[in-house]
Amino acid sequence: MAEYLIKNGHVFDPILGIKGEVHNIAIRDGKFVEPSALTSSAKTIDASGKTVMAGGVDIHSHVVGPKVNVGRLFRPEDKLFKSPLRQPKNARMEMGFSVPSTFKTGYDYSRMGYCFVNEAAMPPLHSPHVHEEIRDTPLIDNTAMPVLGNNWFMLEYLKNGEIENNAAYTAWLLHATKGFAIKVVNPGGTEAWGWGLNCVTINDPVPHFNITPAEIIKGLIETNEYLRLPHSIHLHGNNIGNPGNYTDTIDTLKLAEGYSPNCDFGRDQVIHNTHLQFHSYGGDSWLNFESKAKEIMEYVNRQKNLTFDLGVVTLDETTTMTADGPFEHHLQSLNHLKWANVDVELETAAGIVPYVYGKDVKVCNIQWAIGLELALFCNDPMRSHITTDHPNAGPFIRYPRIIKWLMSKASRDELLHSFKWSEKVIGATNIESIDREMSLYEIAMMTRAGTAKALGLSHMYGSFTEGLAGNVAIYDLDPENMPSDPEMIEKAFGRAAYTLKDGVIVVKDGDIVGDTPKSTIWVNVKVPENKQVARDVSEKFLRYYSVNKDNYSLFEEHLHNPKVIEVDITA
Amino acid sequence: MAKVIKDVGCPYCGACCDDVEVTVSDDGKKILEVANVCAIGAEIFKHASREDRVKLPRMRQPDGTYKDVSYTEAIDFTAKMLVKAKKPLIFGFGSTNCEAMSSAAKVAEKAGAVLDNCASICHGSSFLAMFDNGYPSCTLGETKNRADVVVYWGSNPAHAHPRHMSRYAMFPRGFFTGKGVMGRKVITVDPRFTDTARVSDIHLQVKQGHDYELFNAFRMVVRGFEADIPDVVAGIKKEQILEVAEIMKNARFGTIFYGMGLCHSDGRNHNVDEAISLTRDLNETTKWTIMAMRGHYNITGPGAVWSWQFGFPYCLDLTKKNMAHMNPGETSSIDLAMRDEIDAFINIGTDAGAHFPIEAVKHIKKHPMVTIDPNICMASEISDLHIPVGIVGVEVAGIVYRMDNVPIQYRKVIDPPEGVISDEELFERIYQRMCELEA
Amino acid sequence: MDTVTVTLVNKPELIIEAYNITPDAFAGKSLEEIGNLECHEGNHKTALKEFFTITGKAGATAESTKIIVKGDCTRVKRIGQKMSAGEIVIEGNADMYTGGWMLGGKLHVTGNVDAFCGIQMEGGEFIIDGNADNHLGSSYRGDWRGMRGGLIRVGGNAGSDVGTFMIGGTIIIEGNAGIHIATHAEGGTIIVKGNAMSRVGGQMVKGDVYIFGTIDVMMPGFRYIGDVEKEVDGKSATFAHYIGDLGERHPTRKGEVIYGNLYQKI
Predict the structure, then answer these.
(1) B interface mutation test: which of C51, C165, C203, C242 has the most B CBs within 10 A?
(2) Are residues B307 and B249 in the same domain?
């Protein structure tokens, strides 16, 4: 395996506290080492005048699995005349815009300098599908989070306050699906959707199950910390996307008060609130819809046990998809476009609807502003992560554009003042009055150091610390001579000068030039033997599932290049 | 000591029963018994142990007879055919695993071929409707646990999906459906009085080819326009339309299972499209889902695999090599064959010889043709080359997708005949040979 | 206006995809450059000159370029695809996607065209003297934004699925049309001078359909509301006016529900 010395680059590493100083980065056997550990055969990459960061780490993106694939399948028009027409040697065809093919997904992330993506939602029953797609997504390591917030086992255990049983079941599920963390989507509301209903506040009882979303969330936090999982619960709360929902969001976040993390993986949070933009809305109708980003961030800034990602609306035509079945049904009643829905027995649901975030639609412009405001109001960028909830608020290929907006007030203002209803948008938001321009160091927090830490993966990614995976992004940006044109920032982050994955050059000058195996990371928790839960599992499969228990757990041959994180709570 | 293998998936229909128990002989080479399986599924398992299995590829000779050749020769022939052709068509895949579909896609992309599956002549019209109107669906366990009303429209599971009614939709007792069939209303809509209609609570004998108008009438009731409905629509009296519409509206959870009756009568995709519209309408007030009764056990598979690899489920024109194009009516197998637009053909995991119109077969036969199939079939008998492979679900394991898109992990119960390889290995070797030829 | 004559002299073994036969691609190019424009026969990527002889002269812009296509183009797809200006005359038949995604200019086919012609057209004029096959002026699979503008006029008959998902523009068929006219339409006008079969205006939200002849099976979802005098394509006549599809959703404007209109000549 080749050794590399990346010389003279301006290094940004929030974990090591390196803020753009010139450093040399050394890689041997696919991992970072001290430069002195290199042999004479090491090759040199000259990074002088360039920005050097650890490989990007995406905390929340819908890239593989059944609903993503329905999004691809039922939108042929998302491909019409939109192929990039690339034909590199030994690489696969790249198709799709808002919901790209697996190959395009891997290549595009790699072009942006990313090496890891956390799949945001895996319906447990569909885990073999998720892992098949992971196999076909090149160049990025993956984890996948089983969706748990409406699972019948969990609803019954938590209704009875049985945290230990719920934890034993969760450990079984992580093992069965080769999953990574506990994903919660519209707790209780998605189960209610089985009857065409919803839970819009944290106190709405779940039909037939005699439990509330608040009890589910608290129970899952306790389960998560009991299991000492690397990541916290990963929460998409109730009442997404509706005017005035910011109070429900604050009510939800308050449930974390009094809890602190219990694990050996270095995270500080007990709730990661995903795509917070969709949960920060004021007003009581679309007519007086407004930003409540400031109010949300006033709360979040005070609470050290919360992290979040943005979910910035990028003003594109895209495809919305979420396990929040009732929300997608609501959306199709607004825009009347085609609607797919997949309710998954005993577990979850999903809806998919195309959506056009119009450049001259006031509500969409306000949503755009809210996503950026959350980042700009945040005191600690380690806890605030760049996402688009791909593809919900926009495709992930827009991350470089978001970075541009965050780093340049001029670019924000230019777009803001080009809106047809710009005065109304300014009136309903705070963005015009915010002068903050984020630094490259802060961008490194929001795209790799902070995300890796919140995921509990800072022992693998997000820094140049010795022993971590040799994932490097080199961007053609000179921190000492930043371009006056903000477009150059977007261009630099969109086409990395180099991406190295596990010490292999996979991107050069924005083109895919190499290949290397990718990994699937999952969490195996050793829990005390629990006969009750084993009986419950057998019983539910016998009576309610439509597949047999022994065909449900992922077969070993369908797990590709696994890296397991072992946790033992019996010790 | 005979060995019983449990939790085996059945390689027959899209219901993908995964509770089959297979008893194999001491040496693990013969299947002795199968349990929990319908009559058709049983035959597929038993077939594997037949003595007259084809064990080597067979190449057509100038005198018209077949001669056994090695896999190496067969792979070389196929690779050369693909490299030479301007527009080869690779069609089939209803009866193989997703691993093979993935390998075949790699071959098709390299060859600049058209890649299509049996949906093209089956549920392809369902895809067209999904493209235009979406697909509010669910997994089969949802129907089992929640449904109090089930509609079989233009489908006849009693014959085509023999265990569908007992495992998922009509008889089973689920979490909220403890009374089983006693708590469910079953409605069958079919021009024929089928065996499914026979066991249903209500049979609507729709006039053949007029389902579209009948859906329209139901939608009018849901929107409050019952006064505007003519006295008879599609052969069904207005009173009966109102009665059934009332049952649908009052359902707590309903599922429409539709089949070829919608996909292959006049209007095709539009029939499915309007069924989807009705499902959407019903969701304004209660919960309804819809599901295509997919035919073969893994015909849902290629739609899944190729959607994640290329963005389209079927009819993929990969001839441009840097982009895929799909437009059924143009890039669909029958249309290409009828217009004589293809110059090489691979039939894999289906029988185009039996299922294509004779005019299409005549055009195909002007060009080289290869059949990949464990068995002798009509396609294999008119091909230039027949390559035998192991039977997926019996001799080869792998992932298949059930009609509701749930992946089921199939097991291998016995070894294939000595020397016989899998579809996946075959396509991998064809790919390698193409790389060598192009180097 | 300068004219380029393109003559098919070498027939393809399969079919040709000639997406570059447009005034936009020809404008400002020499004959040699035009001959070198890319086309496809299956996976065989080649140039127009392999199949066509090219004479005349192209204008400096698309507006000032006229293309005359000669020879039997029954198996030549995508002529005039995405053309924005100028003129094409096809002397004879043409294959699929002729005038597909057309933005402007004039396209005249003296013979017949195959399926998917004029799909998702946005502007311009597309005249077919003969017959048109299925999906005339329709939408591409899955796109809810079908034909938006322009005029398609067919001298003969049209196949099924005319104007699916249409949102604007006009389609005039002098002869008969197959099943499914204006399905899912949310605007635009379709005029059939001959007979229609069934499913006229199914799932129609908005728009106007005129049928001069018979309709085999009327959709249940259309309600007769009276007779009206209308001038259609330059001629006045009395029509029975129906609104629908009552089974479909409809927008409201100023408190009033907007329906699709179906007019049948009395």
Answers:
(1) C203
(2) no
B155 lies in a domain?
A: yes
Q: Is the pLDDT of residue B87 over 80?
A: yes
Contact state of A132 with B98 under an 8 Å Cβ cutoff: yes
| Same domain membership, residue B256 and residue B329 | no
Buried b (16+ CB within 10 A) or exposed e, B139-171: bbbbbbbbbbbbbbbbbbbbebbbbbbebbbbe
Closest CA to B144 of A538, A325, A343: A343
- Across residues B15-35, what is the average pLDDT? 94
* DSSP E strands, C117-157: 125-128, 151-154
Pairing of strands A306-309, A384-385: parallel
ipTM here: 0.97
On whether the CB atoms of residues C67 and C87 are closer than 8 A, the answer is yes
* Chain B contact partners (≥3 CB pairs within 8 A): A, C
Give the mean pLDDT of chain B.
97
Regions of chain A where pLDDT drops below 70: none
Residues B232 and B315 in one domain: no
**Chain B residues with CB-CB distance to C44 below 8 A:** 86
Q: Domain range holding B36?
A: 3-47
C179 contacts B267? CB cut-off 8 A: yes
Give the Å distances, CA to CA, from A412 to A389, A421, A422, B302: 20, 15, 12, 44
Q: What is the pLDDT of residue A394?
A: 98
Q: Does residue C15 form part of some domain?
A: no
Residue B308 to residue A346, Cβ atoms within 8 A:
no
Q: How far apart are CA A398 and CA A318, in angstroms?
A: 12
B264 plus B129 within the same structural domain: yes
CATH of the domain at B376: 3.40.50.740
Residue C5 lies in a domain: no
pLDDT for residue B29: 87
pLDDT digits (tens, 9 = 90+) for C73-106: 999 999 999 999 999 999 999 999 999 999 999 9
Q: How many structural domains does chain B have?
A: 3
Please tell me the distance from the alpha carbon of residue B267 to that of residue C211, in angstroms, as a whole number: 20
Q: At what angle do helices A246-254 and A213-227 cross, to 10 degrees?
A: 40
Residue A561: name the closest of A154, A140, A96, A103 by CA: A140
Domain count, chain C: 1
Please check whether residues B232 and B214 belong to one and the same domain: yes
Distances (CA, A) of C171 to A423, C100, C119, C149, C222: 42, 14, 11, 10, 21
CB A440 within 8 A of CB A20: yes
Q: What is the pLDDT of residue C164?
A: 98
B283 is a domain residue: yes
According to the model, what pLDDT value does residue B425 have? Answer: 98
Q: Residue B105 pLDDT > 80, yes or no?
A: yes
pLDDT tens digits, residue range B233-251?
A: 999 999 999 999 999 999 9
pLDDT of residue A296: 98
Residue that finishes a domain, picked among B231, B263, B292: B292
Domain of residue C122: give its range.
Answer: 115-265
What are the φ and ψ backbone dihedral angles of A130, each rounded to 5 degrees? -55, -45
B438 min Cα distance to partner chain A (Å)? 13
Helices (H) and strands (E) in chain A, counts: 19, 24
Instruction: Please state, in angstroms and rounded to a whole number, the distance separating the CA atoms of residues A287 and A290.
Output: 9
Same domain, B132 and B218: yes
Q: What is the pLDDT of residues A56-101, one digit of tens each?
A: 999 999 999 999 999 999 999 999 999 888 877 779 999 999 999 9
pLDDT tens string B381-426: 999 999 999 999 999 999 999 999 999 999 999 999 999 999 999 9
Q: Is B50 part of the contact surface with chain A (CB cutoff 8 Å)?
A: no
Q: Give the residue from A225, A227, A202, A233 showing the smallest Cα distance to A215.
A: A202
Sign of CA dihedral B216, B218, B220, B225: positive
